[in-house]
Design goal:
The protein is of the alpha/beta class and 336 residues long. The chain has one domain: P-loop containing nucleotide triphosphate hydrolases (Rossmann fold, 3-Layer(aba) Sandwich). It contains twelve helices and eight strands. Strands 3-4-2-5-1-6-7-8 form an eight-stranded mixed sheet, with helices on both faces.
Length: 336
């Protein structure tokens, strides 16, 4: 039995994707799950959110430290073996662990791109390379006895993200209410569908019966709108204009379904959450190296800040519950 992998992806950057993965990882741990947060973005922003610079330098510079995601796939890149046994960085004792990201992961892009057509020629190494992320993530799930895996992906449509999405059972799309997010959706939807179809075609050509491969479901379960503060240079009318267009564009481009008239975003079943920006809390959370909803008065969360902390907790809890329901991840009633 495999552990569900949920990817958070948008090929448009700056939509709060990494922050979303970071906070949901903490929230699922808070709700009683054993969680692996996997940083599959070569920019390693999720890793930087979890770890301070001293620890990062220690891991990246010392080869005896826990293996980063790139070190795990390096034997494949060098042609000297298969994926290495993953090692996780503990964040909260045994409940929440991180598969450490690595800027060197960008070096895996060429190999992933080159091996994609090789699957059509029934080459075993091609299948091992393309499925490396999935096999690595499932190995971390076994070692951590994980209930759920959350993956952070970079904002592009390259070969690394193709392999990362093929590894995913589900995908959540973070959005901002602006033109760029909508244009990003128009690229993302058809591309993900094409990758899913192409992988299904390749699955039939696996030459190694003992090589277990990902199903490549990549099932879209909805979108999350990060409601950034309305700036003076972006009138309220324009802001609401983009908000109103999101449901239809998502249905047409991601789900490949008719827009079905005008659906209010708050009534759209595909909208998992409308999250506030919590701009005033971010500096406090970054300084304390903890999620927004765990800030205390000792961290500077007093007065209105403390009320915002409580609001953030409820927002992320409800989002975590909704995602769990759609991915059939069981939450202990004790924590709900």
């Amino acid at each position: 039995m495999t552990v569900p992998i949920i990817a958070f992806f948008n090929n448009k950057g700056g939509v709060g994707k990494t922050s979303l993965v970071y906070h949901l990882a903490w929230m699922y741990q808070n709700l009683g799950l054993r969680v692996v947060a996997a940083d599959l973005d070569p920019q390693a922003n999720l890793t930087a959110a979890f770890l301070d610079e001293d620890r990062l330098e220690e891991i990246w510079e010392d080869k005896n430290q826990p293996l980063t995601v790139f070190r795990c796939v390096q034997p494949l890149v060098r042609g000297i073996g298969d994926i290495a046994i993953p090692q996780l960085e503990p964040i909260i004792e045994e409940e929440l662990a991180l598969l450490v990201g690595d800027l060197s992961l960008s070096g895996f892009e060429d190999d992933l791109s080159a091996q994609w057509p090789g699957c059509m020629d029934r080459k075993e190494r091609s299948f091992r390379v393309i499925s490396a992320f999935w096999r690595l993530l499932q190995a971390t799930a076994i070692s951590h006895n994980a209930d759920i895996i959350l993956t952070d992906l970079g904002p592009n449509l390259g070969a690394i993200n193709r392999a990362a999405l093929i590894a995913a059972d589900y995908v959540v799309v973070p959005l901002s209410p602006d033109l760029f997010s909508l244009q990003g959706l128009k690229n993302l939807g058809p591309t993900v569908r094409r990758w899913r179809e192409e992988w299904q075609e390749r699955l039939q050509k696996n030459p190694a019966p003992d090589l277990i491969l990902p199903a490549g479901g990549i099932e879209p379960i909805g979108y999350v709108v990060m409601q950034h503060s309305i700036r003076l240079d972006r009138p309220v009318k324009a802001y609401h204009r983009w908000m109103e267009r999101i449901p239809g564009v998502y249905r047409e481009t991601v789900l490949n379904q008719p827009a079905n008239g005008e659906i209010l975003i708050k009534e759209d079943a595909n909208c998992l959450a409308l999250l506030k920006h919590y701009q005033s809390l971010m500096p406090l959370a970054q300084e304390a190296r903890k999620p927004l909803f765990q800030l205390k008065p000792a961290d500077g969360a007093i007065g209105a800040h403390l009320k915002a902390v409580q609001s953030a907790y409820q927002d992320f809890k409800q989002l975590a519950i909704k995602i769990a329901e759609r991915t059939k991840v069981s939450l202990d009633a004790v924590y709900l």
